[in-house]
Amino acid sequence: MKKILLIIVLAVVIAGFGGWWVVGKNYSNSGKTSTSADNAPPGSIHNLPVPEAVSRVRSLVAKELGISEGVVIVMSAYEKNWPDGCLGLGGDKMCTQAIVPGYEVTVQAKGTERTYRTSADGSFIQREKQIVFRKIL
Question: Which of 37, 54, 58, 110 could form a disulfide with 50 if both were Cys (CB 3.0 to 4.6 A apart)?
Fold first, then answer.
């Protein structure tokens, strides 16, 4: 009986180690997995792997501002279901009338915050309009 119990415990330990090794291999930050801020300190919440759509927003912002992707910090990324193919930002545009899953992504770069809407895979990215208030004299 003790022998069987020992074999079971050993099998569980080996299976647990194997699972830990596989997960660690797939999600390690080896430079191949995009994170929310590549230059953030180790252990920071900004070193989490991000979905492809969020990574594409970082690339777009870096290109627009002429900076490295590593300094574009993802402040938030929420899964959203947009009401149409224009991600709810159509205005007077013609848009497909179907629910489109995606993300609302807010990033910070060069002292400013920008919010974008994306399709689920990031193939369509639209910046939310920034409202500017001007003092009227």
Answer: 54
DSSP helix/strand/coil, 109: strand
Bridge partner list, 127: 116
Boundaries of domain holding 8: 1-33
Euclidean distance between CA atoms 78 and 70, whole angstroms? 20
pLDDT, tens only, 54-69: 999 999 999 999 999 8
Beta bridge partners of 82: 100
124 and 79 in a single domain? The answer is: yes
Q: For residue 46, what is the DSSP state?
A: G
Residues 27 and 51 occupy one common structural domain: no
- Residue entry with tokens 């191949």: 32
Domain count, the chain: 2
